[in-house]
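SAMPLE LOG
Freezer: B-3
Tube label: C17
Construct: single chain, 203 aa
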Amino acid sequence: MTGLLVVVSGPSGAGKSTVLKTVMEKRSDMFFSVSATTRSPRPEEVEGKDYFFMGFEAFHKLRLEGRFLEWTQYAGHCYGTLYDPVMKRLNNGETVVLDIETNGATQVMERYPAAVSIFLTPPSEAEAERRLRSRGTESEETICNRLEVTRGCFRYIDRYQYIVINEIIEETAKTLEAILTAERARTGRNPGLFADFRKQRID
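STRUCTURE (predicted):
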């Protein structure tokens, strides 16, 4: 059985990383997709674990060859999801998770219609702002910019199959697990199941 490609998007303050980490701790068949980027690695980052680091020319060569499921440019650097590593895991029946912004998610949905798309959101804009400020790591200008991007994210909600409100992390994680379990059970994802039985004549 082909694995699941799961696209998760949402605004800053939605808690995507925390929720996905909680879900993945309970499921051994889930893997984060490692993105490629043209920016330089930070001291703590590891090649192939945090990102695939490459130059602009190498990145754009791959892009022109159609080797990305999605890609975008942000703050002068390019980011993208390589097609081959994702497909290798899917062909092994594994679940691959992409935590990406709405533009990239739209590209994935167009190129891989079987993807499961989930929009994760805080209960309200006020809660999103509270979570951003509680980090204590960003300037007022950065917070305002992120909130503006958050408002823009909601224009894409109707493109997603599922909308999940993250109020309590443990409950949100259970909801995501339920979605994955249900998607795995879809008849369209199990075309060969009981094929021999269906071929038999029932007297």
